[in-house]
Structure formats: C-alpha cells, structure tokens
Amino acid sequence: VDIASRSVKTSHAPIANHGVADDRLNAAMTEAVQKAETQHRVQLMQSHIQHNFDLQTWHNARQMQILANEATKPKGPDVTKARPFWGMSVTDNGNDMKVTSMWEDGPAWRAGIRPGDVVTNVNGRPVRAEDEITDEQLKSKVGTPVPVNATRNGAAFNTEIFPRTTDPTYEAFPEYYHTGSHQKVELAQPATPAPPPLDVSKARPFWGMGLADNGNDMKVTSMWKEGPAWKAGIRPGDIITHVNGQAVRTDQEIKEHQANSAVGTSVPVQTVSAGAAQHRDIYPMTTAPDFSETPVFYDVKTHNKVELPEVTTARPFWGMAVTDNGGDMKVTALWEEGPAWKAGIRNGYIITEVNGQRVRSEDEIKVQLLNSKVGDNVPVKAAADGVAVTLNILTLTTDPTHSHTDYFYSTNEHEKKELS
Questions:
Q1: Does the pLDDT of residue 190 top 60, yes or no?
Q2: Which pTM does this prediction carry?
Q3: Neighbours of 355 (CB within 10 A)
Q4: What's the Cα-to-Cα distance from 134 to each of 85, 120, 128, rounded to whole Å?
Q5: pLDDT at residue 312, rounded to an integer
Q6: pLDDT, tens digit (0-9, with 9 covering 90-100), for 34-74
Q7: Cβ partners under 8 Å of residue 43, min gap 6
Q8: In this structure, how many other beta carbons lie within 10 angstroms of the beta carbon of residue 101?
Q9: CA distances (Å), origin 198, targets 2, 64, 191, 294, 327
Q10: Greatest distance between any 2 Cα atoms in the chain
C-alpha cells in the first residue's frame, strides 16, 4: 500500500473504478493498524509476565537463602540449663526462714518478696532450714516459675519467683542478672543500745608531778608540761605544804591524796614558790586510754616531762651588765624581758646588795650570779635616782638544752638595751 499516493500497487490490471479502490485502501489500512496494535499489546503483556516471573523467582531464591542461613546458624546456649539465681538470702530465725538480704530488682524482689519476710513453702513443700531453700533454688530452671508461700508481719501471701542467672555466658539473654549494676538491700537490724557512758570520775587520777623529800619539805622535782599540776601554776622547785587542807610531810601522803581524788574535781594545794606562799587548785586528769575521748584525758606521749635537776644545774642568766662607776655598780646594759628587766631593774640603777651581801665590784656580782640556781628568786637592793628599792630576780638560763622549760631565755628573740 503506498499511503502517499493512496494507491495499491499490484500485478493485476488497473482498476477502473477509483471509489471502490479507496474503500479497499481504507479497510486495508485499518486492518494493518489494528494488527500492529494487537501485536504491541501482546509484546507488552509478554514482557510484563516475564518481569513478574523474574521478580518472584528472585524473591523465592532470597527466602530460600535466608532459611538456609538460619538452618546453618550456630545455636546459642540453653539458658534454662544455667545456674539459677533467686537473689535473696535467708537465715534460720528459730525455724522461720527469714529473708535477711536481697538483690534489688532480682527475681525474688520482682516477685514481691522483701527483707524481713518469712518463707514457709517452696514448690508446695514446707521449708525449715536454709539448705532446703538452697536445694529448691538449685533444682529450679531459669525462666520457669517457682511457687513460693511467705508471710509478712504475720499475714500470708503467695507469689512466683522466675529464676534468672548471673552466669556471664548468658549476658545476651533477658534472663541474665548483672549484680554489678544493682544494689544489695540488707534487712534493717534493730539499733543496739549504746553502752552507758563511762564514769570518768572513777578513772585513775593523774596530777603530773614528781616529788622528793627535801628535809621534810615536799619539793617538786619533775612535771608533765600542760598536766594538771602544771596548769595549776606549780613548777619544778616549788614546795608542797598542804593538800586538801592537811599538812603533808612525805611523798606517800601526797600519793594517797592523789589516789583518793576524783578526775575533774579540784584539789586545793598550798605551795611555797620562791619563798612566797601560794594557793593552787589541781584538777586531776587521767591517762587511762578508755577515756581518750574525754576532755580530761592526758596523753603522756604528746607532752614533755620537765625535770628539776636539769634546769637547776644549768648555767644561770640574769640578763644585765654592770660597770664599776667609782665603787658604784651601775647597770649599763639589759636584755629586754630578761630576768633583771622583769624584776624592774633598768639601765642606770646602782646595785648595792645581792642575796644580802654588799657588792662593790663586778666580780662580786658575778659570783652571786654563778652561785644562784635556775628557778631561784634572788633578792637584790639597788638605788634608782637616789631612791633605795628591793627587787627579786628570777634566775633563768640561755642553755638551749632547756628550751622546753619556762626557765629558758632566748637572746635571739629579744633586744639588748644599752645605757645611753
């Protein structure tokens, strides 16, 4: 068919009637178009069918592969065969199995059991010993419920424990219980009544001083620094004359007064210090370690003991220099806060007597100084602007061996004052 010329080429003879030829041409064209469309639809249908077939085939093959992989995949361990864990401890409370501790959010905790509950039956069997409950736990299986009967404050209740396991082999399973991430809850124990406080007044009393019979005089020869006698103002060299209003003439008498005294209760003591009578109050303490928490405990390890012989034999120091001023012993230099300074002596004073002896030279004053002992009060007479005065110098020492005593004088900490 030649569509352009709208004519049909044929080997037959030419058709004389052109109207008939046109109809035949149109019919032939329509038939050809319909045939082509039909063929195209058939091809599309065949292509769609083939595509669906290929997709189904792929899907089926994929499913088969997944099933094959699952079939060959190694199986995990059977968690029901793991060691079971209930998460509670019980104690025999006179045939009552009382829960004394639990793991928070553990199997027993989730079952509603709490510390203090009493377990009466497990798996329908009475339990009267800790071992019986342990046996029931070991026979149980992880994930399989265990019926439990218990009481709380006398009221019975029933529950079921679903055992879990603490075996880390099963940590990927929901039945695994990690104790490191949970808290253990203990049964609150009744408070133990506090023991009655110790009566410190009944403790062995301590005064902190040693004495020696100095010809019927009870001389203090040693002391514990910051001890009871020290705090009362008593010092080595003092003479004890009375205790509790009674005269004392022996060391034993004073020891009896100490033994009969009560810690914290004052003891009146009469002393003689540098020739002057003094009243002192000693408040006994104790060295018994049972009372180390009390304010009246004295720890001898943390204090120094001051011995009288060590101090009195030290080189004496008065802290003043004198110059012969035509037979007058004039003070020309003084250590500030030294013994002579504290006695009231000042530069320019004329020293006339020491210890009742007239002094007319520097050497005579030095002899009196060297004959004195540390701790002694030495009477001195002097003239101040023509006025006679009587003073007492308390002898100290500059020997650093005795720096822990009250009689030590450090020249490094004081200034020397010269006469203008």
A1: yes
A2: 0.37
A3: 15
A4: 10, 14, 11
A5: 80
A6: 888 888 887 888 777 777 777 777 778 778 777 776 666 55
A7: none
A8: 14
A9: 136, 87, 20, 10, 70
A10: 191
